[in-house]
Structure formats: C-alpha cells, structure tokens
User: Which sequence fits this backbone?
C-alpha cells in the first residue's frame, strides 16, 4: 500500500506478515500512535518572537490530462534567499498524448510509454508513431517504429507547422525545439528528400548529412536522384547543398556541382534564367546561347523577364516579357522581341545582315472594374518578315501568317435619355507578303441611342407613326497607308488622310395583313474631308496635272429604301398509324423578302476638263470629283433604282431518339442556312440583273463536321473577247446561268472521346501563343512549342485508365484528328480553273501511356505537293520528358530535340539541341 504526500512524492511502507497474536499487534499500533501524538522533545526558551515564514501560493495549474512534472521540494525556504531570476522549469503548454494498446507511466524513471498508434501533441508539434517515450525529466520525446513478425511498421511522422518529416526514429527536445532525426523522408515543394541523419536546429533550420533529393514519385526506387555530402534546409525559404553529383537508377554520372542553391519560397522571386547551349549549322552562325537572362519579381502585380540570345558570329537577340494583373480590375502581358541576325561571317560573299522586331501587347479589363467604360488591347506588329526569319523556336508554327493585326480601344457610355456611346480605337493591319501597312490613329465613333419621338408614354408601340425612330452616328478617322520600310519614319505621314462622317438613319416598321413585316428607311450622310484634289490638262506637256489640296470640304448624300418580308413554315410528317420511322418529320422554314432602294446621282460634286492635243483640238472630256481622295469615298454620280430579292432557308429533321426513355424526337439540322439573292436595277440601260449569289452551310456527324459553300451565277453571256454582254446566257445557246465562281470549305474534328460525348482538351498554351501571334489555333499549321522555356507537368490519368493501361501498352488509344478542306473555282472570263485546292490535317495519338506522336501537314492538289509539315514525338520519362519535333522539308526544314526534368525547380537541368532553318534557301 502507499500514501501520497502533498509534495506529490510517494513513500511506501511495507508491512510484513507477523506470526503473533492479533491482540498484540493492535496493542502495539495503539501505543505507537499515542506516543507520536503526545510526546514532545525538550524545548529551549526563545528570547525573541519567531519570524513567521511567508506563505507562497503555488499559481501553477496542473491539468488532469497533462504529464506529471518534476517533484517539488516541500521544505519551506526563506523567501529572501530565493533567486527571482530562476528559469521556469514547467512546460509551456499542455502535452496531450494517446495510444491504442496502452499508456504506461513510470514515476520512478519519470517517463511515459505509448505503444501502437501513439500520438503526442505539444504546441504546434505533432508526432505519430508506433512507439513513443516521453521523458519529462529531460524534456525529451523519443519516437520509433513498431516491430512485429513482418518487420517494421508505423514509421514516425513528425509535423511542425506546415513541415512534415517521416523518419525511422526521432529524438525531440520540447524545451529547445532541437531534434535528431534518423533516416529522414520529407517532401518540400516537389522535392523528395532523404537523409540518414538530420539535425533540427530550430523551427526553421535543418542540417542533413549524406542527403539525397529527387522529384521522382517513387522514393524507394527513384529513376534519378542527387547525392550530396551536406545540406542546409530552411523550409519555405531555401535549400543549400555542398558537393553534389547525380545518379540515374543508382548509377553515378559525371554531372556534378561544387555547390547549389535552390530557393524554396512559394512567392515569386527574382533569379537567373540559365540559357540553352547549341550550334546553328544551317546559317553558319556558330555556337549560341539562347533563352538566358534574368527574371525580375517586381511585385505581386507585375513581373519582368529579360532574355537574350548570342551567336559566335555576332548575331544576337533580345526579348522582354512582362505580365501584370490586378484582381477585379485588369490583366495583361507585354512583349518586345528584337533580333539582329548575321548570316555567315563578315567578308564572305554570302554574308547578310537582317534586323527584325516584334511588339505584342494584350490587355483585358475585368467586367467588375467599370460597368460604363472598357479598355482593351490586342497588339501584334513589327517587321513583316519577323515570323519568317526569326530563329526562335516558338515562332516555327507562325511563319505562315499572312497578316499582323492590332487593336487598342476605349469605350464609355454617358447615361441619360438618350444614351450616348463613345469609343476611341487605334487599329493596325499589316500584310506580310506585300509589306503594306494600314494604320488608323485614331478612330473615333459616337452614337446616340434610338429616339422614338411619336412613341406613347406607356404601352407598346403600334403602327408606322409610333415606330418612327432616328439616331445620330459620327465616325472620324486619321488613316495612314505606308510600307514596312517607311514605318516609324516621318515619311509615313506624307500620304495620311483624315475625315469624318455623320449619319442620321430614319426608320420605321409595321405589319401588313398580320403576316408581312414592312420597314422603310431614309439615311442622310455628311462627309467631312481635309484632302481634296484639283485636276487639269497641260496642253504644252500633253499630260494631266493633279494638285492635292489640304483644307476643309464636305459633301452631303442620302438614300431611301423599303423592304417587306415574311416567314413561311412547312412540315412533312412521315409518321402515321402503325408507323414509327427513324426520320419522323422534315421541317422547312423559308424567309422571302423584297427590298427597294433609291440612290440619287450627285452630279453637283463633279467637274470636267477638256483634253486638248497639240493642234488645239479637243479630243476628250474627263469628268472627276474633287473628293476622289476622300477617306470615306466619293459621292455617286449615277442614279440607281434597284429592286432586291432574297430567300433564306432552314431545313431540319426530327429523328427518333436512340434513348428509348425519351418521348420527344431529336432535332437535327440538315441545312443551317441556304440563301439566294439577286437584284434588278430599274434605272440601268443594260445588264439590269445582278448575278445570283448562293450561300449555305450545315453541320453533320453530330456537329463535328462543318460545311460552308458559296457560288455566283451570272445570267448574262460573254462575247468572243470574254466580256459580259447584254444578252442572256440561255439566249446565247448556253444554260440559264453561267457559274462564274464557287468555293467550299469543310472542317472536321474527331477523337476517340467523340463517340462517348466528351471533348478532349486542346493544348491551351500552344493555342494561346498562336492566337496572340495571329495564327491558327487548331494546330493545322503546326503547334507552337519551345520545350526549353515550357513549364511541363504530368498528365494526371484517371484511375480507370491506370487499371486498364500499363507502361508498355494500352487498351485505349487516345487520339484526335482535325481536317480542313478548301477549294475555289474561277470562271469569270472562261478560265474554267480551280484557283486553289488543298487539304490540311493535324493529329495526335497516344501509342502508350508514355509514348505519343503527332503530325501537322497537308496536300496541295493544285500544285501536287505537300504543304508545311511538322512531325512531333514525345516520351514521358516519369520525372523527365523527352520531345522531338521535325520539319522534314521546305525552306523551314529544321529539328529540335529536348530532354529535361519536369519540375519547375529543376527545369534548368536539361539538354536542348536544335537545327535552325536555313534562311539562305529562301533568299
């Protein structure tokens, strides 16, 4: 038995069995109690009164579930001798612990033993393990694995804050927060780190000896790892290693570093971007360093990457890339690219120098930023031959771009009645073949919302009078037409023109006989210009003299029009009693309309001059208008009274649903639209009928294939010189109409997921880059890829796919293919020829879970040859990725090989080899 003293120490009194009479035992105990109670020792008389000891109240609260602290000495001590600076020996927080099998407390050893699924919680520290021992006399916690007949299990898991370590065993000091960890395994921002012995210095510093780290998922058998003799690790900040070498499947490689530094912060930080080394043999530029530079993490809202290329023959390139964003406000990116390319070496006959540049800017405003105003930008301008001559791999798929386009616009709304809309924009259009550039700097448009002066204050508008409405529109432009060689120079403004047009459309609409909709309109336009021309004839030099005049001038035009139309519905039903056909009904919607327009002749704006020969004889009289160079065109001088006819058709079918649970049939479009239009000029003296224009389109194969077609049919015949004459073609021995032009375009997208009703995801990064460059986003011109500067990541496969596939073959072959077919026919002057005829295709197929191939190509049936062709190969090497792209022929013949680690932290560990296109072939 035991008695507990107030001092929380334990004193045990052991009683042995006495072989005597129980009466003697009782007498002996009573006598002992009597003596202890009433016996006193001899006392010495005290001359002074004693000093009473100060009563000290223990303020420490002991929780019932906390561990037992050190024994406290119950001997009373004079308070004047106590050191007030003595450290507090108590734990700073409650220690909570539990275990599945048992919790044993050994007061003599001052230890607590936890067995099986043990767990200890102290402040922000948590330890789970098979076995845990708490030594509260030394403030130590021991944690280890649980050993059974099968081996070791329940490896300790040490968690402190956001850091997690999984060692074989650990010794942790709850006071100093230091620890010794054996066989550490931890994951930090993609790194899997292993160390036989780790010293935890404090909350944020670890020292490791003979450590190994990798990004491979298989920690027991990684495909690669780095081995270092010493490592300093600060979670969330950095990792510094000493001499390091690389192993591939346990085999050491000569890839080694004397030291290395890895930033581990989750925030963006500035740092060096390592370049790619290679050799350009196609243009004799020698060895090069590409895509090297520095990344500036300016703030959380904007960054800047400065990249450069250098070739040993003197060629160089510079690229600036910046992204910016402000939540709920706007986001965008800016890029500038400049390349000074030298072919061969100076002094050689094939030496050439070329300077190209490209500027791109994309800006989008969040709809929440301002409901009444909006600013956006999409800029892509530069040298016309930039994509054709650039040596950057990312531009390979964009060299077929024929145009560069830009637009920067700002629009705002002035609320009120009526409402006014104002927009300012600057546009740019550049033809890369002709090198012609068109700029508008700027374009101003203002419009007033429609005003119904006779509309009732309440209720709906009825009749022609109440539906009368008008609005005011204004458009002004400053347009520059220049060439690539003059862009950016003062000469580009020599031929600039400016002008403004004001228009007031007046319209109304009403119903006739409940089925016909009638609309009438009158449009008044006034054009302002600052550029006019004056022409005359110089008899002495026998030539026309044209004088451009700068100054304000204007002209007024107007036109009238009316139209009437209706909608006719037709239905042919195939169902009946006892019939349940697959095609249950065909519905035809026809929208015929007739329009009439009058365009007066404005002869008052035209002048004439006589052509006089050297003898003084007038040979001709030339009519002209001083507004020939007007930005918005010249006023018409021919009276036109035209009657237009058009018919629009939609044809759809109702098909029995494949799902037997559905009672309603499915609608399928047979022809989305089929349109016919022509016109008859009542005021013309000949060729009154305009050609009949036919256009249509549809989607078939579950809307996977789009088909669009158009043709022009001329009712008039040709003479022997292939000129149109005022004789119908049928009266000239031909058919009713003469086919003068036709075109058809088809596109088809299909994948293995198309039959399951799911759509596969496209390469968004490649499509985004192609869209910013003005190219195709469907991959038919090849995919934009630069593996050395690409953040590659694993494709996460579904669990079902993992069960069906293995590393060598797959039961499912994911694939996708895209087709585009185009053909144009011309027969205006009896050419009877196909002007263009081509088929383009692009496809990707995954041969196995880790092998995929792709191709983009086409065939020109007119010239009988393959178009731009790109072959793509990709191999997933678990933690690594290998890519190879090849353009086998044409002036863009080149290839690019890349192998590198997927992880962003180690993305600079790569091998990139490429052969640039030989630009001299195309010169």
Assistant:
């Amino acid at each position: 038995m035991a008695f507990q003293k107030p001092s929380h120490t334990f004193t045990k009194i052991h009683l042995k069995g006495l072989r005597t009479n129980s009466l003697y035992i009782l007498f002996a105990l009573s006598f002992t109690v009597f003596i202890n109670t009433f016996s006193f020792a001899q006392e010495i008389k005290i001359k002074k009164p004693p000093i009473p000891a100060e009563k000290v109240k223990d303020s420490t609260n002991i929780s019932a579930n906390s561990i037992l602290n050190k024994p406290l000495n119950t001997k009373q001590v004079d308070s004047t001798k106590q050191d007030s600076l003595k450290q507090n020996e108590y734990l700073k927080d409650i220690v909570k612990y539990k275990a599945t099998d048992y919790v044993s407390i050994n007061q003599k050893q001052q230890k607590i033993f936890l067995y099986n699924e043990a767990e200890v919680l102290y402040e922000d520290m948590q330890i789970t393990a098979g076995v845990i021992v708490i030594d509260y006399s030394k403030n130590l916690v021991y944690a280890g694995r649980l050993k059974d007949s099968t081996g070791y299990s329940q490896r300790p898991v040490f968690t402190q804050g956001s850091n997690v370590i999984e060692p074989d065993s650990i010794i942790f000091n709850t006071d100093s927060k230091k620890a010794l960890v054996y066989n550490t395994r931890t994951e930090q921002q993609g790194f899997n780190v292993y160390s036989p012995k780790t010293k935890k210095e404090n909350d944020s510093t670890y020292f490791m000896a003979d450590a190994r780290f990798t990004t491979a998922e298989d920690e027991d058998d990684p495909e690669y790892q780095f081995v270092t003799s010493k490592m300093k690790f600060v979670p969330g900040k950095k990792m510094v290693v000493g001499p390091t070498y690389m192993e591939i499947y346990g085999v050491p490689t000569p890839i080694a570093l004397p030291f290395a530094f890895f930033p581990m912060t989750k925030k963006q930080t500035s740092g060096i971007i390592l370049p790619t080394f290679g050799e350009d043999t196609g243009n004799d530029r020698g060895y090069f360093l590409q895509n090297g530079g520095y990344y500036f993490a300016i703030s959380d809202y904007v960054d800047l990457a400065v990249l450069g290329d250098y070739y040993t023959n003197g060629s160089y390139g510079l690229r600036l890339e910046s992204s910016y964003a402000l939540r709920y406000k706007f986001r965008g990116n800016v890029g500038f690219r400049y390349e000074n390319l030298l072919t061969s070496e100076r002094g050689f006959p094939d030496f050439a120098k070329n300077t190209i540049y490209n500027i791109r800017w994309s800006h989008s405003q969040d709809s929440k930023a301002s409901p009444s105003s909006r600013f956006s930008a999409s800029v892509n301008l530069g040298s016309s031959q930039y994509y054709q001559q650039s040596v950057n791999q990312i531009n390979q798929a964009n060299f077929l771009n024929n145009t560069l386009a830009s637009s920067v616009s700002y629009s705002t709304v002035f609320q009120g009645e009526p409402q006014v809309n104002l927009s300012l924009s600057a546009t740019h259009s550049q033809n890369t073949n002709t090198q012609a550039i068109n700029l508008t700097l700027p374009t101003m448009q203002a419009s007033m919302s429609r005003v119904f002066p006779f509309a009732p204050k309440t209720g709906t508008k009825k009749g022609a009078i109440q539906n009368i409405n008008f609005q005011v529109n204004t458009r002004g432009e400053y347009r520059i037409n220049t060439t690539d060689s003059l862009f950016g120079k003062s000469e580009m403004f020599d031929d600039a023109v400016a002008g403004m047009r004001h228009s007031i459309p007046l319209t109304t609409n009403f119903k006739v006989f409940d089925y016909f909709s009638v609309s009438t309109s009158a449009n008044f336009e006034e054009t302002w210009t600052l550029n006019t021309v004056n022409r005359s004839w110089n008899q002495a030099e026998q030539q026309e003299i044209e004088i451009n005049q700068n100054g304000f001038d204007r002209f007024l035009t107007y036109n009238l029009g009316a139209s009437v139309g209706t909608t006719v519905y037709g239905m042919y039903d195939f169902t009946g009693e006892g019939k349940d056909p697959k095609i249950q009904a065909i519905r035809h919607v026809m929208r015929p309309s007739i329009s009439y327009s009058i365009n007066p002749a404005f002869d008052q704006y035209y002048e004439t001059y006589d052509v006089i020969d050297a003898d003084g004889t007038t040979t001709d009289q030339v009519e002209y208008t001083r507004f020939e160079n007007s930005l918005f065109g010249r006023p018409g001088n021919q009276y036109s009274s035209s009657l237009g006819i058009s018919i629009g058709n939609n044809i759809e079918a109702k098909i029995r649903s494949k799902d037997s649970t559905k009672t309603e049939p499915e609608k399928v479009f047979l022809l989305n639209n089929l349109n016919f239009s022509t016109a008859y000029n009542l005021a013309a003296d000949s060729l009154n009928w305009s050609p009949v224009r036919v256009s249509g389109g549809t989607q078939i194969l579950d809307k996977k294939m789009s088909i669009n077609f158009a043709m022009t049919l001329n009712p008039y015949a040709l003479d022997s010189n292939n000129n149109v004459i005022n004789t119908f073609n049928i009266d000239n021995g031909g058919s009713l109409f003469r086919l003068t032009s036709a075109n058809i375009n088809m596109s088809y997208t299909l994948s293995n997921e198309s039959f399951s009703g799911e759509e596969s995801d496209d390469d968004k990064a490649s499509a985004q880059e192609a869209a910013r460059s003005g190219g195709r986003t469907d991959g038919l011109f090849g995919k934009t890829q630069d593996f050395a500067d690409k953040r590659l990541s694993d494709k996460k496969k579904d669990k079902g796919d993992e069960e069906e596939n293995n590393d060598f073959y797959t039961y499912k072959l994911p694939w996708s293919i895209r087709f585009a077919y185009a053909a144009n026919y011309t027969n205006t002057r009896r050419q009877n020829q196909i002007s263009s005829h081509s088929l383009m295709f692009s496809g990707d197929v995954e041969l196995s879970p880790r092998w995929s191939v792709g191709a983009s190509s086409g065939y020109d049936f007119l010239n009988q040859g393959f178009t731009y062709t790109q072959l793509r190969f990709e191999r997933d090497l678990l933690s690594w990725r290998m890519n190879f792209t090849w353009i086998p022929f044409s002036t863009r013949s080149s290839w690019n090989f890349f192998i590198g680690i997927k992880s962003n932290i180690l993305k600079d560990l790569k091998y990139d080899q490429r052969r640039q296109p030989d630009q001299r072939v195309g010169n």
Observations:
- DSSP finds six helices and 55 strands in the chain.
- The chain has a mean pLDDT of 81.
